[in-house]
Specification:
The chain crosses the membrane at residues 110-132. The protein is mainly alpha-helical and 146 residues long. The protein contains 1 helix and 3 strands. Strands 2-1-3 form a 3-stranded antiparallel β-sheet, with no helix packed on it. β1 (2-3) and β2 (9-11) form a beta hairpin. The longest helix has 75 residues, at 70-144.
């Protein structure tokens, strides 16, 4: 949940496994972020977030808009776009890392399960061979005695 300086809830969501929320503050003050884990306490959770704190735009720092040439405005817009692309790449790298970790964990579990299954199959084969061998040896011995 995200709460603004006026104690109004800006964003609130529950039971979400993955998500993304972006907002631009229009008021100065203290914003509160609350992350909870009350729905599922069994599995571990990872929360990551990024805060970009600063002035609205570079254009707001300029005394008057007539002092900025169209080329400078274009450069400022490109710089802002580049910052957004870098933020998006960082987010995608973080997601890729999390999904890779999940995939590697699943692969390890599948490997162990396959090894245990192969071992159980081999053990059952050996037990069946020994049982059948003893069964036929007992029958031969009882047929010879008659």
């Amino acid at each position: 949940m995200v709460t603004g300086p006026d104690e109004k809830t800006i964003y609130s969501v529950q039971k979400e496994t993955e998500g993304r929320f972006t907002f631009m503050s229009h008021e100065t003050g203290t914003y509160r972020f609350c992350f909870g884990n009350s729905m599922s306490t069994v599995t571990p959770k990872t929360v990551s977030f990024s805060l970009l704190v600063g002035e609205d735009t570079q254009q707001a720092r300029v005394a008057k808009s007539e002092h900025v040439t169209p080329l400078e405005k274009s450069v400022m817009a490109l710089a802002e776009g580049l910052q957004q692309i870098q933020t998006e790449q960082e987010y995608m790298r973080m997601r890729e890392r999390a999904h890779r970790n999940t995939s590697e964990s699943t692969n390890a579990r599948v490997l162990w399960w396959a090894l245990i299954e192969a071992g159980a199959l081999l053990l059952m084969s050996v037990i069946q061979i020994v049982y059948l061998r003893n069964f036929f040896e007992n029958k031969r011995a009882s047929n010879r005695g008659v």
